Amino acid sequence: MKQFFGAGAPTRYRPELHYMRGPGPKTRALEYVDHSPQPAPRAGANTSSTQTSLSETKAPSEDDGVETSPIVSDVVKQTTCYMCACRCGINVHIKDGAIRYIQGNRDHPVNRGVLCGKGSAGIMQHYSPARLRKPLLRVGERGAGEFREIEWDEALTIVTDRLRNIRATDPKKLAFFTGRDQSQSLTSWWAMQFGTPNYAAHGGFCSVNMAVAGLYTIGGSFWEFGEPDWEHTRYFMLFGVAEDHDSNPIKIGLGKLKARGAKVVSVNPCRTGYNAIADEWIGIRPGTDGLFVLALVHELLKAGRVDLDYLVRYTNAHVLVIQEPGTEDDGMLLRDANGKLLAWDKARACAVDALDPEITPALKGEVRVDGRTCVPVFELIAKRYLDDSYSPDAVAERCGITAETIRRVAAELAHVAFEQAIELPVAWTDWAGREHKTMRGRPVSMHAMRGISAHSNGFHTCRAIHLLQVLLGTVDVPGGFRFKPPYPKPAPPSAKPCGKDGGRPNTPLAGAPLGFVTAPEDLMIAPDGTPVRIDKAYSWEAPFAAHGLMHAVIANAWRGDPYPIDTLFFYMANMAWNSSMNVPDMLRMLTDKDAQGNYKIPFIVYSDAYFSETVPYADLVLPDTTYLERHDCISLLDRPISDADGPGDAIRHPVVEPDRDVRPFQSVLLDIGARLGLPGMAEADGKPTYRDYADYIVRHERTPGVGPLAGWRGTDGKSKGRGAVNPNQLDRYIANGGFWHHELAADQKYYKMANRSYLAFATEMGFLSKPDPILFQLYSEPMQRFRLAARGHGTVVPPPSERKRLDTYCDPLPIWYPPFEEAAIDTDTFPLHAITQRPMHMYHSWGSQNAWLRQITSQNRLFVHHDIGACLGLRDDDWVWIESHHGRVKGQVRLVEGVNRNTVWTWNAIGKRRGAWMLDAAAPEATRGFLLNHAISDLLPPDVNRRRYLNADPITGQAAWFDLRVSLRKCAAAECGQTEPQFASIPSPPDLPAPPKKLRFGVQFRRAREAAE
Ligand code: SF4
Fold first, then answer.
1. Residue 111 CA: which ligand 1 atom is closest?
2. How far, CA to CA in Å, does 78 sit from each of 90, 98, 491, 658, 720?
């Protein structure tokens, strides 16, 4: 073992210790000896003793004569916010049938009454002049925005006739992709019943790296899958977070941490939002987070500061890995004849079931089992990350962080995890029946999202963060990262993607189109290796693309690669603008025609509530309602509102009736399904199974007794999770404020991956198929299977052209490599990283068209470090060309200090196309706001074989938005004044009333009040 640690390296790792897995007295605590400097965590910036945690904060006294809560409404209805993806509970005050005021719901488990600026501005979202008002049929050229209004019957006949023909002949010719909607359990079921594999939501261009890396490693991930233990964490690391992901919950949580004096460390190239209130900001270079994290791992291993007891109980750290280079099972985990994982038992000197509670597992050393050489996973981990290439000195310059900082952060993590370990006086029993008197916790927690994900090395970076958490023993323990039920799931979840045959006429798929591959045999490829899906998800180019690749659909459909499609059906995704890379070419593809004058993408159906930039590119537009006018289901089958203390789900319900001829998309989808006679949506006599989405929410059962909502099931409404359909279920939700939440028993709240009581509960609820423990996969065997295929083993192997790439990136342990764009271009020509952040007060393009939120930000600027500004002779508000290897964009500069010196950044999705969203043609969003998207290529530069891969992660296909490299050039005087590129202004749809010059809200309430007075 010594050679792995280097001759001179301090051996803080203690391989000589025996780590017992046995119960009671056989188990002994590990001895952690601390030889390294141990600085105490810095005091937080807001540690005043006068501060109390939010949960203890009382509302201000109202007996001072000031009326702080005047009655402003006739009625208050409780529903769920949709101004971003956090799903806070809201009280909607309605006066004279109009929305008067939106307030946070104090009883709601997500926000506890907290409402953000976006949430309150929901009024202007609801009353936006850009709301569509009737179905639209294109009458001019695609892209020209020329439509006529049609009736719903005509619209539904057009779409149904088209889809009926597709389904009867070749169902994959329907590509159905949805944006950031919250009904994916419905939409994926619909696609499955239709029979097309070409379905996905927006995850491929958002944070699939985070989701997949987590699900394959620990059976869960951040945000919707888990959260920090806000009540007990003492050291919180926040990596590259988008502020509209997990917005209010994080703000509330950060408030609690600051009040308790916990240390908040943010790792982000930009010091904005949460980073601005962190106790320590680490302005890392974009795309190097994985290297930084693995350097922390190096330091922890070198110092022996890892929780070996935790590792052998809850991970595959002790499982044996076959080491027989050149053979077909080299690198695979060792199993017995029954498929059980094996580990080396030192006491018995033989390989035994790795989950045997009596095992005394070896974590080091080479053994021979059945004639094969094997080593434990942990030995591979130690060998890799103790290498000097991961040392702080080796990575510091690349990361833009000093080696001292890396060493100090590692020491602080270890200090808090091991010297400040906490124990909750809660007895619990693990899966093997071992009783524990307390719940021990290591109060270090982490959170990461899109900033980490959106790189071509994002998958491995996310894996590295989970590795770091697990090595510290901080996953689902007091003070650490905690799973939100229904997570954890087995790592990975068992569902495989379906539709490998491409779908058969008039036949549903055997299962959902999206799932989790574990071997090349699971890929969605034809026998000749051709991708089955239009987005090429689950092909050799993106084998673990569990959220699909929505960002590849337009280009592939335009090229007819791997085949032409007939109909592209988008919902709630602004694919002709801020949701696509390379916007100018995407617009050309959407309107391009073949030699016969037919559109290369024959038919485009789009559903949205608003007149976005994508509407003009549709042939048929199905107008959706706003979130306050429809039913929705925030389901445990999809992405619920659970917290770590228990599962929860929620609904939306119409708090006002639509005043336009619009219909909720989910009801329309069910209507189309019924007209097509899709199984589960139409009865034998052809009648619709469900009246509408509300009816579906109540009566649909995915498996017997399990439906979209978990609360108040059963005919008496007393069951949770499983139970018969309760016709009054929606009423029960409405009476309860629009949500259901179940509080776990105290002994179920932690160690969910191995907690007997929780596992039984999760099985009873249908979260798990059986109450088996969930073993964290530090070493990923599915990855190794693809690596072996790349080396020619197995029956499904990649073509020679793909082998090197797969062999390199399908590494079973986390790796770091430079982002692809950076590696492919001349970085002297494009020396700067360019990234975007989301403003806390906006959510995608929705927020930046909102009359109230626009007043906060109506123009984005490029934030540039003062040093770069000085080099380039730039001053505030100068115009610059932002040039990439692919294109250029023009915008105005703002000089700042709080940014990595090699990085420029801007707010996302502020720039708008002239004419869209019913904004004035001279609106600053269109004249001065800009999108970096135009400069981001959807493809990487050609490789040595002239092959152009997607600008994406090679494992998941996640769009690598943040790999962009640029140079800046100060504009000449004649070039200043307006952003570029500019696109033709799009006319507003017919009969959509022109917005007033000055948009005002609320004057009618004042007039009515004054009249009454
Ligand atoms: S955080 Fe999101 S869901 Fe919550 S109130 Fe704000 S906009 Fe609404």
1. 4
2. 6, 15, 37, 17, 21
* Cβ–Cβ < 8 Å for 226, 465: no
Q: Is the CB of 83 under 6 A from ligand 1?
A: yes
Sign of CA dihedral 69, 73, 74, 76: negative
User: Rounded distance, CA 582 to CA 968, Å?
Assistant: 19
Q: How far apart are CA 849 and CA 845, in angstroms?
A: 7
**Ligand 1 pocket member 86 (CB < 6 A):** yes
Sort strands 620-623 and 603-608 into parallel, antiparallel or unpaired: parallel
Q: Name the residue type at position 321.
A: V
| Residue 678 structure tokens | 């899709």
**Contact present, 257 and 674 (Cβ < 8 Å):** no
Non-local CB neighbours of 823 within 8 Å, separated by 6+ positions:
817
What is the model's pLDDT at position 686?
95
pLDDT, residue 246, reads 75
Q: Which among 116, 223, 626 is the best mutation to test ligand 1's pocket, defined by most ligand atoms within 8 Å of the CB?
A: 116
Asked if residue 84 has its Cβ within 6 Å of ligand 1, the reply is yes
> What's the CA gap between 1013 and 1006, in Å, rounded?
10
Q: What is the pTM of this model?
A: 0.93
Say how far residue 164 (Cα) sits from the centre of its chain.
Answer: 34
> How many Å apart are CA 681 and CA 674, to the nearest integer?
5
CA dihedral 633, 638, 642, 643 (to 10 degrees): -140
pLDDT at residue 39 is higher than 50: no
- With cut-offs at 50, 70 and 90, classify the pLDDT of residue 1004: confident
- Cβ burial, residue 168 (10 Å; 0-12/13-18/19+): exposed
Per the listing, tokens 């190096």 go with 298
Amino acid making up residue 387: D
Other CB atoms within 10 Å distance of the CB of residue 236: 27
Residue of 80, 83, 856 to mutate, ligand 1, most atoms within 8 A of C-beta: 83
Locate the DSSP E strands across 737-798. 739-741
Expressed in percent and rounded to 5, the helix, strand and coil fractions of the chain are 30, 20, 55
Q: Give CA separation, 868 vs 396, 744, 897, 906, 970, in Å.
A: 21, 53, 10, 15, 12
Q: Distance between the two ends of the chain, CA-based, in angstroms?
A: 85
What does the alpha-carbon distance between residue 1011 and residue 897 come to, in Å, rounded to a whole number?
Answer: 53
Cα separation, 58 vs 254, in Å, equals 18
DSSP per-residue string spanning 630-650: S-EEE-TTSS---BTTB-EEE
Nearest to 406 by CA among 522, 304, 288: 288
* Per-residue buried b or exposed e for 641-672, using 16+ beta carbons within 10 Å of the residue's own CB: bbbbbbbbbbbbbbbbebeeebbbbbbbbbbb
* E-only strand ranges, 105-234: 136-138, 147-149, 174-178, 199-200, 226-228
Whole-angstrom distance, CA of residue 624 vs CA of residue 495: 31
Return d(Cα 254, Cα 469) in angstroms, integer: 19
Residue 157 CB partners (closer than 8 Å, separation 6+): none
* Residue pLDDT, tens place only, 164-208: 999 999 999 999 999 878 899 999 999 999 999 999 998 888 889
- Alpha carbons 27 and 14: distance in angstroms, whole number: 17
- Residue 123's nearest CA partner among 854, 628, 572 is 628
Contact assessment for residue 869 and residue 875, using Cβ atoms and an 8 Å cutoff? yes
Secondary structure of 174-206 as H, E, C letters: EEEEECCCCCHHHHHHHHHHHCCCCEECHHHHC
pLDDT tens, residue by residue, 412-423: 999 999 999 999
Range list of β-strands (E), 538-628: 567-571, 603-608, 620-623
Task: Quote the ligand 1 centre to 319 CA distance (angstroms).
Answer: 44
